[in-house]
Amino acid sequence: MISMKDISERCGVSIATVSKALNNRSDISAPTRELICNTAREMGYFPNSSARALKTNRTYNLGVLFVDAARSGLKHNYFSQVLDSFKVTTEANGYDITFINVNQEFHPMTYLEHSRYRGIDGAVIACVDFKDPQVADLIESDIPVVTIDCDHPHASSVISDNITGMRQLTDYICDSGHRKIAYIFGDDNDVTKNRMEGFRESLSAHRISLSPEYLLRGKYRDPESAYQHTKELLSAGQPPTCIAYPDDYAMIGGLNAVFDLNLSIPGDVSIAGYDGLNYTTVFRPPLTTLKQDTEAIGQKAALELIAQVESPHRRTYNRIVVKGRLLEGASVKKLF
Amino acid sequence: MISMKDISERCGVSIATVSKALNNRSDISAPTRELICNTAREMGYFPNSSARALKTNRTYNLGVLFVDAARSGLKHNYFSQVLDSFKVTTEANGYDITFINVNQEFHPMTYLEHSRYRGIDGAVIACVDFKDPQVADLIESDIPVVTIDCDHPHASSVISDNITGMRQLTDYICDSGHRKIAYIFGDDNDVTKNRMEGFRESLSAHRISLSPEYLLRGKYRDPESAYQHTKELLSAGQPPTCIAYPDDYAMIGGLNAVFDLNLSIPGDVSIAGYDGLNYTTVFRPPLTTLKQDTEAIGQKAALELIAQVESPHRRTYNRIVVKGRLLEGASVKKLF
DNA sequence: CGTGGCTCCTTAAACGTTTAAGTGATTATA
DNA sequence: TATAATCACTTAAACGTTTAAGGAGCCACG
Which end of chain B is more exposed for a tag (fewer CB within 10 A), N or C? Predict the structure, then answer.
């Protein structure tokens, strides 16, 4: 590997001069800078990121904490879309990303310890149990953090607008003439809370009263439980005419339950999902869902995090809300 | 951040002694080692990875080059599964991962330059145009590399057994009584070549001659082209009774074409895919596909790469073949 | 008692950067 | 002409490790 020393020898200047020239410092004459930059290019020089990090305490590395209960943040379609967008944006700004985990090498590390070990400049946290004390430790540390889909007093956040989103979706269902609307909601967290709020808002705006038997606790990304709940709902005395699911993947479980009962969609029962995963549009019937803007979420999280990292003083936390968009399929029947 | 200096002061020894104690070197007395290790634990010490990397030229960071033509290696279900498994395995062995890209900060870098800049110990390459000269540069460098689904004379490789896999799948189709079998194959690369070989092998073993009009060049992960090709095939004079697709996602396009022609699956035409993505089993009908063992692929790639990294001498390249498994759905009709 | 060989520790240099402080030369100011 | 300011560079220390080389103390042996 070729270093500044090599360039300095070739150019007949000191290493410090090389450093300053390459970093565009002011006290270097134009010709010298030219010479040094050209020689660097010719010799194929690239800075050694470890040395630079050691000296400056800046790694240009951002940590990513994307772990769900199943330890599979990556296989999660929604989050891999967000991550991809995040990654593209950080890379365009000269940052690389590193996954934060509980590394086993030296001895098990907490998330915070691992972050310090790798010296990341900042971290994005998503798809995680925000009540985990290890996660709290990281957020409350001096490392800049941006959370996704979770409000926290000590971090900026990018929030997919679940209240408006669920309201929009429910409005659409109501406006299609449905009155008996079931909602299988997800695990106990901010996202679920907000969607429930949107759901309630919409119902009450449409003067529909909320029947508890139409509200079932389900799970995110779990077709099995959606399957069960759907069967229960449809074999009850007063089956709903439409069922909303925690997400698109769970909805597939519901869809199968409907088929297994020899009912048709949307002929006999309507269904709606959430997320807008790429396969919903190619399903038959195309599934109606609320598409979250994963690209915007990832991008804004990246830009906000970089902004936090690069202005270490007067840290103010921002809350960035990203709206979704109704993806109208044909799985919700128009009842008029 | 607390450093070795802090520990050395607290223990009244030199920094070198601390280093040796923590690294389990031999020339340290048992009591001293105890003292140092305990103090380190108490003080919450963790090594500074940049300093260590600078000195040892080992970062315990592995590069990941997962970019397909659409720049979306992460959103690609198959590869995100492989990556997840790779990541889990490397983390268990004390390695972190970093994405290799063409970083824009200093000036645009090639893959190899970026790899050197970050000082990765090794790299895994997949989902990439292996003919790209930048990729070749990286493989032919002195950085240990493991490729996935591509043979290369200068690297170990983990190969999903596409020959056997496609043969198995085609055997199943033939054994179900089909004789008129169309195959929409993917882009021009090793994977496609091998699958075609398996396809031919199976047909000739079943004494079925290959009709060129049943072989169509399609694209991976492209429902659109699969849709078009399927319509063509089914509206021809002698439509096939079964169509095999490049992958599961493309198959969905075919499925829609069949539905749009008011035909049923598998009543009127059978279809089969490749990959075994998680939604194939929840489709109606469940889709028959050849599931690639993404978990094994990721894990073996990680272990092989780490082995290469940790034994820098006598480099021998291994070729690790991972078998798939037929996932029998109900999309291929039994014709007897 | 001198030599050699342990054992356990320290010294010091090095890895490739950045940067505060210093220096000599030139130019501007009074 | 003396002094100050500016410019363009160099020196040297520092970041936190690792590691070769060195050395003090002790014991054993001839």
Answer: C
Would residue B55 count as lying in a domain?
no
Distance (Å) from the C-alpha of residue A98 to the closest C-alpha of chain B? 6
- For B90-104, how does the pLDDT look when each residue is reduced to its tens digit (9 = 90+)? 999 999 999 998 766
- Residue A98 φ/ψ, nearest 5 degrees: -135, 140
- Angstrom distance (rounded) from CA A226 to CA A252: 8
Do residues B233 and B279 share a domain? yes
Q: Residues 6 or more apart from A306 whose CB is under 8 A from it?
A: A62, A90, A93, A95, A122
Please state, in angstroms and rounded to a whole number, the distance separating the CA atoms of residues B318 and A157. Answer: 46
A155 and A304 share one domain: yes
Collect all residues of chain A within an 8 Å Cβ-Cβ radius of residue B83: 74
Are A285 and A248 contained in the same domain? Answer: yes
**Distance between CA atoms of B18 and A221, rounded to whole angstroms?**
49
Min Cα distance B102 → chain A (Å) is: 8
Q: Between chains, do B118 and A109 touch, taking CB under 8 Å as contact?
A: no
The residues of B between 271 and 310 with beta carbon within 7 Å of nucleic strand C are none
Query: Which residues on chain A are in Cβ contact (under 8 Å) with B259?
Result: 284
Domain assignment of residue A14, given as a range: 4-47
Asked if residue B242 lies in contact with residue B214, where contact means CB atoms within 8 angstroms, the answer is no
Q: How far apart are CA A46 and CA A57, in angstroms?
A: 18
Beta bridge partners of B320: B158
Q: Which A residues, 110 through 139, put their C-beta within 8 Å of a C-beta on chain B?
A: 113, 116-119
The residue whose CA lies nearest the C1' of nucleotide C13 is: B55
Indicate the helix (H) or strand (E) that contains A87.
Answer: helix A77-92
Compute the distance between CA of residue A1 and CA of residue B197 in angstroms, rounded to an integer.
Answer: 44
Whether residue A134 sits in one domain with residue A65: yes
Residue B334 falls inside a structural domain: no
> For residue B61, which residues of chain A lie inside 8 Å, CB to CB?
98
Q: In chain A, which ranges are E strands? A: 61-66, 96-99, 122-126, 145-148, 156-160, 181-185, 215-217, 242-244, 270-275, 288-291, 319-322, 325-327
Q: Confidence class of residue B328 from pLDDT cuts 50, 70 and 90?
A: very high
Q: How far is the CA of A62 from the C1' of D11 (A)?
A: 35
Q: What is the pLDDT of residue B108?
A: 78
Say if residues B127 and A117 touch (Cβ distance below 8 Å): no
Local structure of B185: helix, strand or coil: strand
Q: Is A142 on the interface with B (CB under 8 A)?
A: no
* Nearest residue to A224 (alpha-carbon basis) of A192, A184, A194, A189: A184
